[in-house]
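W.,

You were right to be curious about this one. When I first looked at the sequence I had no strong expectations either way, so I just let the prediction run and decided to look at it fresh. Below is the sequence, 334 residues in total, followed by the output.
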Amino acid sequence: MNAEKRSVTSRILETRGMPQVITVTAGLFVIFAVFSMLGDNFLSARNMRNLMRQAAPILIVGIAQSFVLITGNIDLSIGSVLGMSCMTSATLMTKGVSPLASVGITVFLCLLIGLLNGQLVAKCSLPPFIATLGTMTIARGIAQIVNNNRNTDSIGEGARAFRSLFYYGDFGGVYSPVWIAAALWLVFNFILSSTRTGRHIYAVGSNIDAARMSGVNINYTVTSAYLVSAFCSCVAGLVTCAAGGIGAMDAGNMYELYAVAASVIGGVSTLGGQGLLLGTVVGALIWSVLQNGLILAGAPVAIRNIAVGIIVVISVLLDIVVRSGKRIRPKKTT
């Protein structure tokens, strides 16, 4: 029996990226415990529900960035696609288009950005930083132009069902954005962990030349990752639109950072080929707990940004050290 238990434990620990997930989960518990001791309001049922709703869009964009990072690329257009989604859907609804049609058109436009990203990176061999920097600017420009460079009016009472579905709905004591994030995680975690496309995504990130010689369709695989990224960014934009009830031109600002933070804190490698979406959940929760706890503690915005930035840098640095096999060794003295 003990041998069987050790065997199961060994298999879990040998899963690609699982040690990092365990480490960051321990870190989450530590951060959670610290803020629990600093204030009674942190553990209140109301704050926990709000914290989970706050974490939902971060998890959604974290899933987006994780897919791309695992292929060894990056997507800088996530925040702008989110903003384009928010502005486009809100503008259409204020012009009398039904919420369902507005969502459909918005998803289609966002997927076009994802398709463009994939083709620029995979087929045209453009560096992902440059390609997605360009589409980031394009998407932000579309977000600004759809309503003549101004925020939209309220999407109105006709969009009450839309706002309930994407933000204010409460099912079983859990807000609807949490259910949306959970559904997306289940679908895309299955794709990543249990399908051929998922195996190819890891293969491309681990060694693109070896993957190509093994018959992996690089163009299809990389484009698929960018399409997932665009779709998740679109959904996060719809959540943002539902939350405010308007289209805001600055929606999605800094979400590229949030997406990277959720991914790399959760153990997704910036070098490609490694990471689990389970870790992305933990990364999103760490970001949200930090933000929520520091707000309750009265910390200014600058301090909150510095804390997240430091954690991201440390996470990436540790990943590079571990993946390159480097270790800090004391200098030899004569």
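Here's what jumped out at me. The radius of gyration is 21 Å. And, maybe more interesting for your project: Residues 218-244 form the longest helix (27 residues).

Coffee later to discuss?

I.
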